[in-house]
Amino acid sequence: MLTHRPRRNRKSQAIRDLVEETSLSVKDFIFPLFLIEGKNKKTEVSSMPGIFRLSPDLLIREIETCMKLGIYTFDLFPNIEEKLKNKTATESWNEKGLYLRTIRELKKKLPEAVIMTDVAMDPYSSDGHDGLVVKGEIRNDETLEILAKMALAQAEAGADILGPSDMMDGRVGYLREELDEAGFTNVSIMSYTAKYASGFYGPFRDALESAPRFGDKKTYQMNPANSREALIEAQLDLEEGADFLMVKPALSYLDIIKSLSDNFDLPIAAYNVSGEYAMVKAAAAKGWIDGDRIRDEMLLSMKRAGAKIILTYFAKEYALKHT
Ligand code: PBG
Q1: CA 243/CA 267 separation, integer angstroms
Q2: Residue 218 appears among annotated catalytic residues
Q3: CB neighbour list of residue 145: distance below 8 Å, 6 or more residues apart
Q4: Residues paired with 137 in a beta bridge
Q5: H-helix or E-strand spanning residue 83
Q6: Is the CB of 120 inside a 6 Å radius of any atom of ligand 1?
């Protein structure tokens, strides 16, 4: 006779629930939202069905709705008008500009909402790159100065968590120091620790109209073939004072999530990116997969791999389907 029968632990829903190791909760989600200039304006991102660019008034209302569903943290990305973009991304620290103005208003109206911001030049850069371009090259150290101006302006506007998504070397330490010197010791940093040069960002760049105008991002974002490099990046972020380590994209990088979670004690976040969302939506629309089921299975796999936090465009949809 068989002594070991693992199926005994699967024999009923109650037993399966008892032995279940991982569970999803809306409390773990961060909902990324796209911001656009205007009033009462809402435009769907064509490659991300169900996801909209929202004008400030509608964005604030959307955040209010999501908070009632149990989502409290939001990562905001601005779609900046082409005429405001330039080489040095000066619009990124314009207090009256779309992004900072909206954050200020948001924090006044909804002080309990946790606002995460994006620190990188691409939405404001006429080159569409995350760093400063000089003679076709992305300059690291000059970029840090620009990122610091942006970060301080965001902190000033009330941001709770800064998300440097640029992949410049040394930026976490540089930002931490600048923030602390300016008195923003309570502003957190969620570092995009292992951000890969990925094809999965396509729909996001549609949403912001922020695709690089030349070349690609391979001199700063990581090579999808590498995992050991992620440990180096994580060690640096830890030493430089990051509060969270993020892996991006999530689905094709579950091994990286696991590796960081096994080796570091900071909370790990996974960014379930735009292309991952788009694939599920497209296949579900064709009737080829069960979108709801696959959404939950994907999100679960990220947690199982070791992510405590998931940034996902599915956040609201998940909350609506599970309440
Ligand atoms: C850029 C940035 C990107 C994303 C977040 N911040 C795109 C890129 O690096 O080109 C992608 C997010 C997504 O695809 O959902 N700083």
Answers
A1: 8
A2: no
A3: none
A4: 134
A5: none
A6: yes
Residue from 248, 281, 303, 316 carrying the catalytic annotation: 248
pTM for the complete prediction?
A: 0.97
Residue 191: per-residue pLDDT: 98
Q: Where are the domains of the chain?
A: 22-322
318 phi and psi, to 5 degrees?
-60, -45
The enclosing H or E element of 257 equals helix 254-263
* 122 Cβ below 6 A of ligand 1: yes
201 C-beta closer than 6 A to ligand 1: yes
Pairing of strands 188-195, 161-164: parallel
Q: Is 248 a catalytic residue?
A: yes
The answer, yes or no, to whether any atom of ligand 1 lies below 6 A from the CB of 190, is: no
Homologous superfamily, domain 22-322: Aldolase class I (3.20.20.70)
Residue of minimum CA distance from atom 14 in ligand 1: 201
| pLDDT tens string 171-200 | 999 999 999 999 999 999 999 999 999 999
* Cα dihedral 25, 64, 208, 312 in deg (nearest 10): 0
pLDDT at position 12 over 90: yes
Q: pLDDT digit string (tens) for 125-177?
A: 999 999 999 999 999 999 999 999 999 999 999 999 999 999 999 999 999 99
CA of 190 to the centre of ligand 1 (A): 14
CB of 92 shorter than 6 A to ligand 1: no
